[in-house]
Amino acid sequence: MKSLILAEKPSVARDIARVLNCRKNLSGAIEGNQYVVTWALGHLVTLADPEEYDKKFKEWNMSYLPMIPKKWELIVIKQTSKQYYNVKSQLFRKDISDIIIATDAGREGELVARWILEKSNCQKPVKRLWISSVTDKAIREGFSHLKDGREYLDLYHAARSRAEADWLVGINATRALTCKYNAQLSCGRVQTPTLAIIARREEEIRAFQPQEYYGLTCTAGNVKWSWQQAKNGSTRSFQKSFIADLQTALKGQTLTVTEVQKTAKKTFSPALYDLTELQRDANRRFGFSAKETLNIMQRLYENHKVLTYPRTDSRYIGTDIVPTIKERLKACNTGPYKKFIPQLLKMPIKASKSFVDDKKVSDHHAIIPTEESALLEHLSNEERKIYDLVVRRFISVLYPAFEYEQTTLKGAASGQCFIARGKRVLIPGWKTVYEADNFEDNEDEEETTFQTADQSLPSLKKGEILPISTSSIQTGKTKPPARFTEATLLTAMENPVRYMESDDAKARKTLGETGGLGTVATRADIIEKLFHSFLIEKKGNEILITSKGKQLLTLVPEDLKKPELTAKWEMQLADIAKGKHKEAEFLKELQGYTNALIDEIRSAEGSFRHDNLTNTKCPRCGKRMLSVNGKNARLLVCQDRECGYRETVARLSNARCPNCHKKMELIKKGDSETFVCACGYKEKLSAFKARREKEGAGVTKKDVQKYMKNQKQEAVNTAFADALSGIKLQ
């Protein structure tokens, strides 16, 4: 008898098959002496659409709502049905004694496998492979410690509850809003509160009134001093006359040093990456969207096997990983990392509580390198960037603290306080790993103050009197809160308490415990959905709410806009996964909530108006089309939801303007396509291709490698080398 292994994707299935010596190719599977390996393609089975329960639900009609299935039905996804039936044929082979679930080790991965087993009505015993990386070593170790599948039934119940709850609320509320206001309006328990956070920030920006403020610096004893308020330590004043009078009073005066304070300080490396922190960092540094970062991480995990499981919400590793750290360091001891790793390999690893803590590891530990050697030349430019972030963070937590001596000087002149600061590095520590890179996050930085930056300070003593040589006044204006980027929006979703006005202490605590809006695995998709629904749009790197998004928030029930709702759900789902809460109770509560939600939408007073109608008519139904901004494109979309026609008018390309070097838009008009830049430069696509060909563009990475290889061979086969080859040296 054999065991059937069910992986989530073909690439992982092939790796498992290779490690377990399965070599015989079947239709949608690979067979060996002891195992048969098959795979899903993500979800092969999903919850049935409303019309599968009753044909009348094909019509979007308010009178049919709410739709609450008495028994949930599963359907095979048409696009991947062939693989489902391949898997099913393997499940029911007479020589298959048990099933080993080897899908991603998490809530959604469990759902992928269990739905296939449920739909096919397979009752064979189940075991579970639970690993955080897909290296050969991890696979072997995982198979030597297989778990009983029954241990993960509660996790499956939590995953199923989440899917059914989202179906109940999302589908019913979306249909109710669309029918009521005759517009394509979608909502959900995570996307709507996220949209509300963006809207609230926009309101703050619009309501903001800038104020001018002033500061004063002076030079005394070759030191730059900043005026400072004695009461609160601020270096800003909103009274122009006061600062001007102080500058006048300082002329010809002296400054007395009143305090010299030297303090030894140290800072430790930032914590290891979880997915949200990695997505945030990648967006801030490279402009990658959350979805792009997740896709890149998935390739580094599945295809290259150089990084561990991406969908983690932990920033710590467990004590079981500590013995493998040196092996992981050896695996990434290449390229730019050779400067930092050898010295770590010579010393014993110190398992600090700052990055090793079993209690803070959830289903998966932080994202770290695997024991698989990295071949940097095989990684794309984008993959190198993400890999570099993870490796440097991993190395840095093993380095000592950054230590420095902070010197603070305080002085007095004309009855006012002045301050100067200096810093002397004692031990560069972990900062050497980042070299000149400034990793600091300035997203939430307040308005610039006039406090002097760290400077090289001479040796001064308390009581010294220094003549004031110069003074100058600085001015500035208070700034509104910054608009969200994908990086800061991810932070807001992870910690929405900061962006709420609720005083409910219990709700705040719940949000903190559940990790905010959505999960690390779903946040990228939620942001993409908001873009795809044209509820938000991008201007540069900033995210703006659209007119459609603003109107939707006025029509959606108040409760659905609150982050507390999704926090409450996640808390209950976590309890279901731990066996502390019953799935049936959760769904019964959700059914009552759905009923109340539909009643509220049905009785609400409001209206929706398309303010982006164009005179262009839909080629399918003849109705006027809407002009919308997608994430990277401008489109025309039919206003009729059932028609669904859309066409791209212009998209942001990777082609750079020859004048200002910014990315150009490719605009389509009829059969002709033209590049247009914000600076005014225009160029037809045909002319662009001709110019690029003339410049020698379009050479691929493989072409370059082939050329370099030929150059090396030519360099060896010279006449001089040939002459030397015949000489025998004693």
In total, the number of domains comes to: 5
Task: Give the terminus-to-terminus CA distance.
Answer: 66 Å
CATH C-level name of the largest domain: Alpha Beta
Low-confidence stretches: 441-448, 714-718
User: Compute the gyration radius: what is it?
Assistant: 31 Å
Major β-sheet profile: 7 strands, mixed
Task: Write down the overall mean pLDDT.
Answer: 88
CATH fold field value of the largest domain? Rossmann fold
Q: How many alpha or pi helices?
A: 23
- Summing up helix and strand content along with how strands pair, one would put the structural category as alpha+beta
What best-fitting shape do the alpha-carbon axes yield? globular
Number of strands: 24
- Which second-level CATH architecture of the largest domain applies? 3-Layer(aba) Sandwich
Order of strands in the sheet with most strands = 2-3-4-1-7-8-9
- The percent of residues in helical segments reads 25-40%
Q: Would you kindly provide a written description of the structure presented here, covering whatever features stand out?
A:
The chain is of the alpha+beta class. The protein folds into five domains: 2-145, Rossmann fold, CATH 3.40.50; 182-206 and 485-603, Topoisomerase I, domain 2 (Orthogonal Bundle), CATH 1.10.460; 212-268 and 402-477, Topoisomerase I, domain 3 (Distorted Sandwich); 275-396, Topoisomerase I, domain 4 (Orthogonal Bundle); 613-695, no CATH class. The protein is built from 23 helices and 24 strands. Strands 2-3-4-1-7-8-9 form a seven-stranded mixed β-sheet. A seven-stranded antiparallel β-sheet has the order 18-19-20-21-22-23-24. A six-stranded antiparallel barrel has the order 10-11-14-13-12-15. A hairpin with a 3-residue loop joins β19 and β20. It starts with a strand and ends in a 5-residue tail after the last helix. 35% of the residues are buried. Mean pLDDT is 88; it is low at 441-448 and 714-718. The record marks 60, 167, 175, 311 as: Interaction with DNA. The active site is at 309 (o-(5'-phospho-dna)-tyrosine intermediate). It holds the Pfam family Topoisom_bac. One of its GO terms (cellular component) is cytoplasmic replication fork.
